[in-house]
Amino acid sequence: MKQLKELMPGVQFIEDIMWAGLFGSTKDGLPYIGPHPDFKNAFFVLGFGGNGITFSIQGRQIIADMLSEKPNELSYYYRFKR
């Protein structure tokens, strides 16, 4: 709003809707997927930024494998406290 008023000082307008979004990230750009040591009986799929949807597909399979006690080679890379 402030920038718009500075760019177009003579234009009168009323703000109707405002939208904003936050994008989280990790140090290495990878998601956190799997159990967290502080939360018993909980699994997390925390993909961030533009790749969050892609990571959620991988996360779904990783969590399904964990619940079935199957090994998943990606779980090592996406673990908490890495």
Detail the topology: elements first, then pairings:
Layout: H1 2-7, E1 32-36, E2 39-46, H2 52-67
Antiparallel strand pairs: 1-2
Total count of domains: 1
Which class do the helix and strand fractions yield? Answer: alpha+beta
Series of secondary-structure elements, N-terminal to C-terminal = HEEH
Contiguous low-pLDDT stretches (5 residues minimum) are none
Helices, by number, come to 2
Strand content: 15-25%
Which geometry do the CA atoms define?
A: elongated
Q: Work out the helicity level.
A: 25-40%
Gyration radius from CA atoms, angstroms:
20 Å
β-strand number: 2
Report what the structure shows.
This protein is of the alpha+beta class. 27% of the residues lie in helices and 16% in strands. It has helices spanning 2-7, 52-67, and strands at residues 32-36, 39-46. Strands 1-2 form a two-stranded antiparallel ribbon. Strand 1 (32-36) and strand 2 form a beta hairpin. The mean pLDDT is 90.
Structure characteristics:
alpha+beta, 2 strands, 2 helices
